[in-house]
Amino acid sequence: MEEKKLWGGRFSTATDHVLEKLNRSIDLDRRLYKEDVECSKAYAESLHMISMLSSDEYTKIVEGLDKVKEEWDTNSFIIKDSDEDIHTANERRLKEIIGEPATKLHTGRSRNDQVITDMKQWMKSSVEELCSNLENLIKTMVTRANIEIDVKMPGYTHLQRAQPVRWSHYLLSYAWTFKNDHDSLTNLMVKLDVVPLGSGALAGNPFPIDRLAIARRLGSQTVTKNSMQAVGDRDFVAEFLFCASMIGIHLSRLAEDLILYSTKEFGFVSIAESHSTGSSLMPQKRNPDSLELIRGIGGSIMGQCCGFLAVLKGTPSTYNKDLQCDKEAVFSSFDKLMRIVELCEGTVRTLTLNPDRCEVALSSDMLATDVAYYLVRKGVPFRDAHGLAGKVVAAAEQKSVDIDHLELKDLKLISPHFDADVKKIWDYDNSVEQYQAIGGTSKKSVLEQIHELKAWLGEHKISVTK
């Protein structure tokens, strides 16, 4: 015999078996069990405060909910066919444990405000975990940048050699990017901290519960101000999925760089065996599978974001069952992101930098901009200096030599401003050291970046020892 559903009072026929399967979300939202129990305990307290529950009933409900949580914790909770979702499962089991008082817990409450509160509570702790993983990745990058600060390499635009930079400056470019991602997640926490519980199905709660007290019990200070907006709001889900997509994109771009840099053609880095795999056919191969998986999974996370935005676009106001799709998108994106952030940290931490290959890749044509800066320092307007530097490059190409092999007389034919001191340009150390302004690739600027990131990590109780 089919067990009675919480909403089945006005129905006289059984639910279609296909709808039954699609409607059932317990396999996904069971991971909200702790949050559902804690939110139910907070709500029970609010009912007790307005005498909707006696002290005895309140005590039984709290003790029963603790028992429900213990069963989930120990994997002894038995899911039944009638358990559509985590809310019905927990309420059904609570009634089995304590009897009639369990039927009062849902007074004035709806699964509409339950589920969004559970999701926000789950996401608060999950975002904290994700932020912690990002902090570890940033720490690894800062540590390597500090140790390998003097290694120079080509910087690229359009994937063409552009200007000499420090390897440390390159690494920190991603450290700052991931810090920005961390900041975005921190900003999202403000919205996650607004509690919807007490909004009912859409019209609000007809009983004088203290919603602010519920919020404080759940570790927050404020509540939603409009019940219709509250139960239909999934903007925080969309924002999380966007943040997750951006982190995935940033990880993918880093992975793409390192895959290129680890090829024989570049040879700037070697990926550790622990983060590589081999070929089933070609014995000599060592493939950067860790980075390729990061790159691929980053794309799938972006797909979850696009898919859920399409769901939101098609829903009218307040709660609609379409919104049940948020859980699959959030849980899947979070799980994937946690794995690839951790995998990226391990890959970056264990890779070997090949300084000789980095510096051998530097070429004098990358100093063409420095030629223009040389002329600017001689009083030539930059736009004119840029044109003259271009003529220097053209002259070197006509003579089939590198620009640093042009003779002074050749340079003077291009501009009388060239003098014997031009030879100072052909020094990669001098080149990187001229970028002293904040954000530049000089040693001073890079050390300032490291100091600032170390201080930021220290605020999050992450110590960088080297």
Structural summary, described in words:
The protein is mainly α. It has three domains: 8-104, Orthogonal Bundle (Fumarase C, Chain B, domain 1), CATH 1.10.275; 111-202 and 225-360, Up-down Bundle (Fumarase C, Chain A, domain 2); 364-434, Fumarase/aspartase (C-terminal domain) (Ribonucleotide Reductase Protein R1, domain 1), CATH 1.10.40. Helices cover 59% and strands 5% of the residues. It has helices at 17-23, 26-29, 33-49, 55-73, 86-98, 111-147, 167-192, 211-217, 227-232, 235-261, 289-313, 326-350, 355-360, 368-377, 382-399, 408-414, 428-433, 443-459, and strands at 152-157, 160-166, 194-195, 222-223, 269-270, 352-353. The protein is elongated, with a radius of gyration of 30 Å. Belongs to the lyase 1 family. Argininosuccinate lyase subfamily. GO terms for molecular function: argininosuccinate lyase activity. Residues 9-303 form the Fumarate lyase N-terminal domain. One of its GO terms (cellular component) is cytosol.
What is the subunit organization of this protein?
A: single chain
Major sheet, described briefly?
Answer: 2 strands, antiparallel
Taking the alpha carbons of the first and last residues, their distance comes to: 67 Å
Q: Categorize the overall geometry.
A: elongated
Radius of gyration: 30 Å
List segments where confidence is low: pLDDT < 50 over at least 5 consecutive residues: none
Helix-strand category? mainly alpha
Spatial ordering of strands, largest sheet: 1-2
Task: Please give the domain count.
Answer: 3
SSE pattern, N- to C-terminal: HHHHHHEEHEHEHHEHHEHHHHHH
The CATH topology of the largest domain is given as: Fumarase C, Chain A, domain 2
Q: From the coordinates shown, what is the CATH architecture of the largest domain? A: Up-down Bundle
Strand percentage, roughly?
Answer: under 5%
CATH level-4 homologous superfamily of the largest domain: Fumarase/aspartase (Central domain)
Query: Would you report the number of β strands?
Result: 6
Return the average pLDDT rounded to an integer: 94
Protein name: Argininosuccinate lyase
InterPro entries: Arg_succ_lyase_C (IPR029419), Argininosuccinate_lyase (IPR009049), Fumarase/histidase_N (IPR024083), Fumarate_lyase_CS (IPR020557), Fumarate_lyase_fam (IPR000362), Fumarate_lyase_N (IPR022761), L-Aspartase-like (IPR008948)
Domain Fumarate lyase N-terminal: 9-303
GO molecular function, one term: argininosuccinate lyase activity
